[in-house]
Task: inverse folding
């Protein structure tokens, strides 16, 4: 259901203000969403003054700097810091992306950092993605062969392999799914761009034998057709993939099969 | 336990871009158009009641508010038609690259106003 307003316990309050202590002249204000599960308090927006003269170029560097030098209680996920693992997906300046590949120089004014949208918050910038992982499991993202013997190599032509380009690179960071208004309103049923892109990846794989069953499974008013080409997903993808196009291809396959 | 956790902000913080604006406007104009068609049906039905009801609508449509409504509906229908064509092309699997969605989105937004002016001029028999 479409619920524009946040529930009462999720309304963001004004938070603490951390003044700069380094005396730097090159200061930026960074507003960060905070919520601590150990207290009864509502979420708040803390503001940090960060010395930009001694800060590397990415948003993740700002977060690390705050955690190391200003407020060690700040919680967020990060791992590889090279845009490969997808852990540091969050909403920066109103757009989803990976903190480790988003340069802060591209953001005008104060930097606003929120967790991925419309998720149950676990703590600070960490959202609960278990619903998405369950949906990912539901499309059975592994190779299914009926005829071939498992010990022999399944040969794929270069042309068939090329069909997977733009789909296999997905790192499941959930930037796309959590940017999608349809997924916000119907996230319990609509599979969302990330999972549909993966469904597409297995449907077009020439080595997979269950193309028809996979298509049939995804052909559902709510699972697939809630996509209204809003394009937030493609706009958000930090790997430059195009989930919206994959969903359109799925719809096309169903219309022509 | 999880159900008491707060929901992270969504539409309140997410930045708009051309495609999302076109998409939401498509919905809003669609609802307006359905309402408009219903009103037009009632208007035509009311003509059966004779001259007085015809005079009444004529006065209304010639008032400033009436003209605003007519122009607004012309824009709403223009927008819906152009956006629908964009959707049709997308349903064929074309125009999903970010740059192209931006361009087609802009064409829809600007085109809807151009079309409104064109229809207005046509109605005034200026062209």
Result:
């Amino acid at each position: 259901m479409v619920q524009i307003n946040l529930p009462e316990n999720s309304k963001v309050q004004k938070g603490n203000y951390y003044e700069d202590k380094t005396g730097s002249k090159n200061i930026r204000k960074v507003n960060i969403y905070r919520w601590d599960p150990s207290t009864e308090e509502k979420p708040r927006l803390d503001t940090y003054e960060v010395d930009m003269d001694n800060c590397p170029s990415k948003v993740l560097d700002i977060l690390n700097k705050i955690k190391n030098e200003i407020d060690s209680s700040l919680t967020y996920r990060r791992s590889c810091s090279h845009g490969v693992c997808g852990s540091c997906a969050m909403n920066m300046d109103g757009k989803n992306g990976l903190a480790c590949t988003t340069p802060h120089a591209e953001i005008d004014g104060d930097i606003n950092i929120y967790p991925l949208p419309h998720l149950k918050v676990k703590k600070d910038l960490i959202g609960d993605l278990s619903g998405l992982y369950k949906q990912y499991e539901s499309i059975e993202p592994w190779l299914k062969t009926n005829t071939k013997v498992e010990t022999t190599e399944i040969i794929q032509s270069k042309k068939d392999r090329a069909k997977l380009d733009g789909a296999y690179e997905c790192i499941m960071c959930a930037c796309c799914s959590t940017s999608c208004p349809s997924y916000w309103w119907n996230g319990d049923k609509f599979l969302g761009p990330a999972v549909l892109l993966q469904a597409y990846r297995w449907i077009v794989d020439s080595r997979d034998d269950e193309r028809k069953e996979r298509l049939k499974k995804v052909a559902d008013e709510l699972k697939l057709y809630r996509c209204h080409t809003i394009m937030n997903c493609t706009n958000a993808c930090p790997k430059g993939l195009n989930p919206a196009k994959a969903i359109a291809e799925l719809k096309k396959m169903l219309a022509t099969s | 336990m999880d159900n008491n956790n707060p929901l992270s902000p969504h539409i309140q913080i997410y930045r708009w871009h051309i495609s999302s604006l076109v998409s939401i406007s498509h919905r809003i104009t669609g609802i307006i158009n359905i309402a408009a068609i219903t009103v037009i049906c009632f208007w035509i039905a009311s003509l059966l009641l004779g001259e007085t009801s015809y005079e009444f609508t004529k006065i209304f449509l010639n008032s400033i508010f009436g003209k605003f409504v007519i122009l607004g509906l012309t824009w709403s229908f223009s927008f819906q038609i152009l956006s629908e064509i964009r959707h049709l092309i997308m349903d064929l699997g074309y125009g999903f690259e970010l740059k192209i969605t931006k361009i087609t989105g802009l064409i829809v937004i600007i085109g809807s106003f151009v079309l409104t002016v064109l229809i207005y001029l046509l109605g005034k028999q200026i062209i």
Q: What stands out?
A: Chain B is about 75% helix and 0% strand.
